[in-house]
Structure formats: C-alpha cells, structure tokens
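Let's do one together. I've listed all components of the complex below, 1192 residues spread over four lines.
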Amino acid sequence: MITEAVQERENYLNTSHGIKSWLLTKDHKRIALLYLHTITFFFFLGGIFATLIRLELLTPKGSLVSADTYSKLFTLHGVIMVFFFLIPSIPATLGNFFLPMMIGAKDLAFPRINLLSWYLLVIGGCFAMYAMLAGGVDTGWTFYVPYSSNYSNTYVIATGLGIFIAGFSSILTGLNFIVTVHRMRAPGMTWFRLPLFVWSNYATALIQVLGTPVIAITLVLLICERTLHIGVFDPARGGDPVLFQHLFWFYSHPAVYIMVLPGLGVISELVSVFAKKPVFGYKVVAFSSVAIAVLGFLVWGHHMFVSGQSVYAGLVFSFLSYFVAIPSAIKVFNWTATLHKGSISYATPMLYAFGFIGLFTVGGLTGLFVACLGVDVHVHDTYFVIAHFHYIMVGGTIMAYLGGLHYWWPKMSGRMYPEAWAKLSALVIYLGFNLTFFPQFILGYLGMPRRYWTYPDEFQVLHVMSTAGASVLAVGYLMPLVYFMWSLRYGRIAGPNPWGATGLEWQTPSPPPAHNFEETPVVTTEAYDYAALAAMEEAKVG
Amino acid sequence: MHEHVDSIKTYTLVFFSLLALTAATTAVAYTDLGPFNIVMALFIAVLKMLLVALFFMHLRHSTILTKVVVGGGMLWLAILLVFSLADFVTRGWLPVPGK
Amino acid sequence: MGSDLPLFPVQASSIAPSVDHLVYFLLTVAVFFSVGIFFTIFYFAVRYRRRSESELPVPSEGAMTLEILWSVIPFGLTMIMFVWGASVFFTISRPPDDAQQIYVIGKQWMWKIQHMEGQREINELHIPVGQAVKLRMTSEDVIHDFFVPAFRTKADVLPGRYTTVWFKPTRPGKYHLFCSQYCGTNHYAMIGWVYVMAPQDYQAWLSGGATGSLASSGEKLFQTFACANCHHLSGAPGRGPDLPNLYGTQVELADGGNVKFDEDYIRESILNPAAKIVKGYQPIMPTFQGLVTEENVLQLIEYIKSLTPKEARPPAGAAAATSKRKSTKQ
Amino acid sequence: MDSYIETPELREQFETPTQQKETSTLGMWIFLVTEIMFFGGLFLAYTIYRKEFATVFGLASSTLDAAIGAANTAVLICSSFTMVLAVRAAQIGSRKALIVFLILTILLGGIFLGVKAYEWNQKFEEHHVPGPAFYLEGVPPGGQGPAQLFFSLYFTMTGLHALHMLIGEGLMLFLLWHAYARKYTPSYYTPVDIGGLYWHFVDIVWIFLFPLLYLIARHQH
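Okay, and this is what the predicted structure of the assembly comes out as:
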C-alpha cells in the first residue's frame, strides 16, 4: 500500500519515462544519476586494474602479466581513477543532486551545460576506453616528457584527448556551481547560512575553473609535440622537460583538492547530523575550504623537489605547503569538537565519517613528511608517496563519497539501504584499506620505488600484506553495489527526513519532485539549527 | 532593465585610441630603449587591454562580482608565471648543476 | 622465500642519520596527533552516544581562542619541520669542496658510470668509504632518477642538462641503486648496486682495466673534430675563445649578459653554440648535436677543464657570490 | 508561482529576467577566466624561452612582417569596434543596425583570418616551420634549435588564437541568424552581449600576441 502511494506521487524519477527522457534531461537530479552510473562503471574498471596490479606484486619476480602490460595497468588505473572517477565523483553526483536543493533552487544555473558536461565526460571516457582497448597507454598518469612525447609507442594521444575533453566537463561543472551559488540562492539563504557541503563544493569549483585550463593547454602541447614535433619540451632544441612538470602540477596538485574538498564538505554534514549539533566553528570551517582552494595553487612545486628544479624554488614551495596543513588541521579539530556533548548516532554514514577523519588525519600527517624537503628527497617516487596519496584519495575521498551516498541514498531513491550490511561493509572497507596501504609507508621508507614490475625479495612480506588487504578492500567495495541495488526494490520506504537533518533537501519529499520544491523555500534560520527543526516538527504534529 | 547605453562618441574615441596605441607600440619597438622596450610593449598592451575591457566589454558598468572575477583571473595568471619563474630565475644560484 | 621483514633501511651515508633524525621528529608529531584524535573521537563517540531519538544537545558556541590555539600550535610545529627539513635539504644539495667527481649517464635501461681515471661501469658503482663523491649526471633519452635508499638521497637525471647528487658513504657494503623516475617498460630493470669499499680495496679496483683518463680521451676528440682550428690553445687570437684558464670564471657575453664558464655552459656551447656567444666573437660555430655522444661531451668537458689548472680555478663559493650579484668584476 | 513572469526567453530555473541575464553574463566572464589560464600556459612557455634565448628569439621575431602584423591588429580592433556597436544596436533595439554591424564584424574577422592564412603560408614556403626542413636565414647554425622553439610558439599561439577566431565567427553567424529572425529585443539580447564579450576577449589575446611575437627586437635588426 505504502509502496504504491510513493510510486503514485509524482517525483523526478517517474515524471517522464523512456531512455530519451534520461539522455535529454535537463534535471540536475537525473543528470546526477547519469553521472552516478558513469563513475561507478569507471570506479570498478579502475578497481580491476588495481586488483591486477596488486596480484602481480604478490611475488617479487613478475609472473602474472608482462612488464609492458604492468606499465599499462598502473597508467590506466591512475588515469581512470583520477580523471574519470575521483574528479567527477562527489561534485558531479552528490553535488549535482544536492547543491541546488540545499540552496533552495529549482535547478543549476545552466541545466543544458550541465547535461553537456556529462556528455563530455562520457566522450572523454570513450577516448580513454578506446586507448585502453586499442593497446593501452604506458606513460604513467603523469605523462612526463620526453617519455610521453618522444619515446612511448602507446596511445598517448587518444588518452590525452580523453582527459582534455573530460577536463572541459570538469570546468563546466565548476562554472555552473559558482554561478549557481552566486545567483540562485533562495530568499533568506545568505552566505553564512549555506550548508558546509555547498561551501566546499564552491571552493572546489574555483579550483576546477582556475586550474583545469592549464592541464588542457599542457595536453595540447603534448599532443602537438607527439604529432607535429614542435619541440617545446625537447631538450635537443633548447626546450625544457621540467617546464612540462610545472604546467602539469599547476593543475594536478590543486586537482588533489578537487578530489578531497567535496569530501570534507560531506563529512561536515555527516558529523553535524549524526551528532545533532551545528558544526563547531561554522565560519572557520567554511573559510578553511576556500583557504585550502587558494593555498592549493601555491604549492605545486613540492612534487618537483628532486626534478632539477632550483633549490630556492623548492624552499618556497615547501614553506607554502605547510600553510595548507593548517586549514586541514582546523577542520579535523572542529569536527572532533562538534562531537563534544553531542547526541552521537552510529548510523553507517557516521561510521564512514569516523573512518574518514582517522584516515584523512594519517594522510594529512604523512603529507608533512613529503612536504619536508630533507625527507622528501628520500621518499619521493617511492611507495611512501603512494601510501600517502591513497590515504587522502581513497581513505579520504572514497570514504566520504560512500558516507555521503549512504546518507543521501534515501533522498535519491526514496528507500533505505540495509543498515546491518552497510555497517559490515564499512568495517570491511576500513580494515581492508589499512591493511592495503599502511605497509606501503614502510615499503616506501625502505626505498621501494614506484612503478616497478619486479622488486628485491626482502620487500615481499610487506607486498603480500598489501595484496591481502586489497582483496579484502575489493570485497568491501562490492557489497554496497549489491545492497544499494537490492534496496531500490526491497528497501524500507524512507520518508522525507529519515535522519532528522536540517538541510532544505530534507524538507521536500523523497524522492524529490521534478522542480525540487512545491514552492520556493524561504530560509529564516542558520544552517544546522536542530532546535528550530524540532520546533517545526512539533508545530506540524500539534 | 536598466542597462547603461554608452554613446557612439565614447566608443569612437576608444576605437581611435586603440588604433593610435597600435601605431605607438609599433613605433616604439623600432627605437632602442634597452631593457625598456619590453616594458613599453607590455605597458601599451595592458593599456589597450584596459580600454577594451572597461569600455567595449562594459567592465566599468559591471557588478563588483564581475570585477572580482576578472581580477582573480589575472591574479591566477600571475601566480602561474611568478611561481614558475621562481624556479627558472633562481637556477644556478647555488653553484651546483641541477640544483 | 628467504626474505625477512626489514622495517627500517640501513644507514650508509653521512646524510642518512640526519634524515632519519628528522623523520623521528616527524613521526613523533604524527603519532601524537593521530593517537590524540583517534582517542578523543572514540571517547566522545562512546561518552555522548545517542540514548534517545528525541534528545537535543545544546549547540556549542564557537570559541575563537580555541580556533586560534589549534591553528597556531600546529603552525609552529610545521615551521620547525620546514626549517629543519630545509637545512637537511641544503646539506643534501651542496656537495663538499673535496668531493670526488664521477660521471653518470642514464639511458633506457641502464646506468653508465665513468670515473675520472677512465674506468667505466654499467649498473655498478664502486666508491671508497669515507670519501665524499659527487655524481654529475645526464640522460641520453628520457628522465631517470638516481636513487640509493641506504644513502637517503636521489636526484632526477635529465636529458640536455647536468644534475648532481652527492654522498659520503660511511659503511662498506653493497647497496641498492634504483631508477626511481618511471622511464619506460623496463624501468624496473634499471637497477644496480653501489659497492662501498675499504680504501685499499678501492685502490686495487681502480688500478685494473682503465683505458686512459676522461681528459685524455677528450684531447683525442678535440683533435678529431679539429676544434683547435678556431680555439687555438696557444694564446694566439682565433675565431673562437681561447680555452685555457677559462674554467670557473665569469665570461662576458655578446648580448651584454654574463655566464659562468662551467660544465653546463661548455655542454651547451658544444650542442647549441649560438645560445650564448662570448663577447667579441661571431656566432659561426656549428652544432655538434648528433656528432658527439653524451660520453664524448663529458670527455671534452674534462679535457677543457684540464686546460685550467686546479689552483687557477676560483673557489666554487666565490663564483656563486659574483654570479648572484651579476657583474661586479670584469 | 505568481511571481513567475512568463516571457518566452525566461528559462524555468530562473525567477526573473534580470536574474537570468546576470547569471549568463557572470557565466561568460568565468569562462573567459578559464581562457586566460588556457593561454596562460603558453605565455609561461614563451616567457621562459624568450628569457633563455633572448638573442635568437629577437632574430627569429624580426623575420615576421611587422607591417602585416600591425595592419592585422588594426583590422581586429575595427572588428571589436563594430562588435560593440552591434551590442549597442541590440540594446536600443535597432535590428537593422545590429545586422549590419554583425556582418561587418564577420567580414573583418574573415579578413584577419585571411591575412593570418597568408602569413602561415609564407612561413611554410620559407621553411620556417619547425621540423627537419627548418632553416632560418640570419640565425647561426647553432641557434636553429631555439629558433624552432620561437616558431613552435608562434604557430601554437597564433594557431590557437585563430581557432578561437573561427569559433567566434561561428558565434557571430549564429547571432546574425537569430537577429535576422527577430529573436532579440531591448529586454532580451543576452546572447549578443556575451558573444561580444567573447569577441573582445579574443581581441585582447591578440593585443598581447602582436608585440610579443612581432616586435621583440625591431630596434636591433
């Protein structure tokens, strides 16, 4: 009976039918779901590469795949995961779905451009897939010249074009978000009433808009170098390969914050809802997102301490890198302080939030090692760096993404996921992750270099631990895929606000109607005002 | 809608200034000013840019937000140039090749 | 399996202990903060667990003092890390004056090493214990990276440029040499060993198998390419600058600038002669790109260096000071 | 929904036409910022190599025809002038003037591209295109490498600029078509406005490219 009632009420899912109504939709919620399918596909594709890499490294002498294949595996793992999963992950799915709702808008400012960005991601993905199927690419996701420009005999151009096109998708999403936050807020939704998820997506959008064009021109130059041999990075004609690294990292370091900033926003939401308290130091947390975005642009040279960059430039970049640590630390301290005297629920999203804070802390603190000039010389390009950025990108971003997905799933689908399974999978992922990546810190300090197909025997024990962890992690990631699909049909009906959350997105039915709100909401309270919410509920009942 | 409509006279004036500055930058390039040739070339180019942006692109009637956006763009361009040059300019300060 | 479980790399250079001390400090800070945060979260999660759905906690007022406190203290700690790290970094970057020079050429996928005395090695480097060694490195193709974990140092090896890495081995033994910048399919195979030997063993090793020093090979090349047609070594005016007694000095350029007559400049002048023309000369020298290998360039450099006696070369530090202030002399 | 002003041009996500116009304009300006950064990568490469190979860059630059470059700059400034007059025509609702000025803008843009094509063709004939056949007279044999770098940057920068011009011509044709179909009124001419912003931006890029590529060392050679 209840099921039928839900299905009868018009919502964004049943307002129109047929494949065309999805492929030509301008509804940000439907586009978010298109993205969700796309990036889930890419996530598991990248995951298959990761699994093969870990299996290959089970033994010190390469036995599973050839050296050539191995190089293609880690390249494709990096390219797919970075450009086609992590960068679009939270902004394009959760951000796309909820940013307009959270500010009380009917849609993003440019719905057609929003749809275009999805198509661009898919087209870019097609290029990358073509490169993969035609024979792969073996330059590493960093595409360092002159290897990528003059030596590699693989599909660098197709991959480069794929990333170039996907880059436009990212730029347009960022542009859309910035304009939307500036121009589409509901009456009464002032800047300091914005949920922190909106702040962090806004900061992310700034990076997308300011940084992505530079990787675009870098890839154009790389493609020109390969096809027309223009020589801009060719030492034989006076060109400088280090210039490529500057251009590459000018985008690719801030890109790390494109990946993790939205995750920080998700965690702020989760910590608040499941402690039933406003985030401690709201303004400080909001500004710290913008600070991370801005400072993130001043530190790219810390990827180049041993690249032949001048030591003085190294000094400047190292010094500024430590400034990024401060806003990151502030966030962690403020989340912890939010828990103080809260009413803490152990729902699955909160478990992910706890996991996130722990792993992000480890990732951030090991960031201090690699930002430290004297230490980075030793650990640069070793597994230490691998472990560090996987703690940020997997332990951080993916934890937050999964936490956010569980949290907003009832709103997106109208149904609850199975709580017990979800808790189990969160635990499995947490344990698997640590077993996979913690040994890599030790490996790295011992001197195990990145991107090695074989390795000295003495590193095997740690590699075996890492591979064992990876298999646990793989199981952990498959579980949500199964139970989320299961819940679409069998999940408990969620109701508009299953968590008792304050955001505007929870004041409309689940799933939301096509235009999000029955009428444009007027905002009169600060973000995370649980007392006001309780009063409102009481008034409704009374 | 309260759009500001500039007069044709203003536009014409700006147009002729731009042409004059183009002539000026070409002429100056043929005079030996030592290191100031590049300074003059860039100065005139920036002047022309300001004329186009402020008048033809109506930046002077735009919202503060638009001006901040433009300023931010220029600032980020400066970050890209200055921090990269921080490497290229200081190479060789330490008398060790590659440091 | 035959492998044990090492958790910390051996220390085999003078730098290694100072890097490790810095790491101990960083580890202490990292463990302190991560354990502190884990414990606090765990404690709060248990202490303030939700007991009823209807409970409504009192919002805590933001505390600016607290915010400032937990920004300033970590910032202070990171500044210690920065200064300490930078000082270690400068030690790693600046070879001591008595460092003995060895040339390294990286190519896909091997390390070619040339000693001044003429010995050549592939994927092996023999050095005496207790003697500082600086490697002058370049690549024939893509970017490589010379990495010896036991020495805690590495540097990228670039095509078209020289880069430097130095270390002073403190323990005889056999240590891993890795290429740590991805350089193509067989990147994993671009590995080798560094043999740190007792001085007498090293002398014995040196005495075998040399085919003439680098400088003497360079002299032969100088004759083969008829460089002396323009670069007279006699002091008589020629079409090119006279090379004796130039090494290490500041040279005035045709376009008004200055350049230090060092290895990089010699290299550039052989391969890309018109880039920086010495004042008073015409840009008529042809490029030798494609005619000489990287090894040949090294030999020529060593020969040209040998034309300037060691005593006549300005000390490295002094040259740096003048180059920073552009031209105070000349 | 009462406040919903029903005009054919107002898209459903907006409340008022003003909000819609401001939103579109802001979007265009942010897009232009991404263009600044896009060209910024090239300007960085240019700065570094010009500093490193000052003499050779000067020699190579002086083989370009400064007169043609200056004339083409003037053509582009004229096109900006006609563009701004087109926007003004749209503002005051003069359809005829709008059409005339758009056509003029398209023609001037075409002239610019034609001249550019002529220059490029010249470079091909003179073997000034980077590659095995490259040879630049007046540059010593050892300087041919950096001279190629100059021409690589010349072709990439002017090439990408020309590509932007081509896109601009497409935009202008679109505007012309819509202007002809009477889609624009004094209360709705946002596409003309933001099309103009794009056109002027491309003009500004050229304002920098002209002295940086054509006029490096005219006083010496």
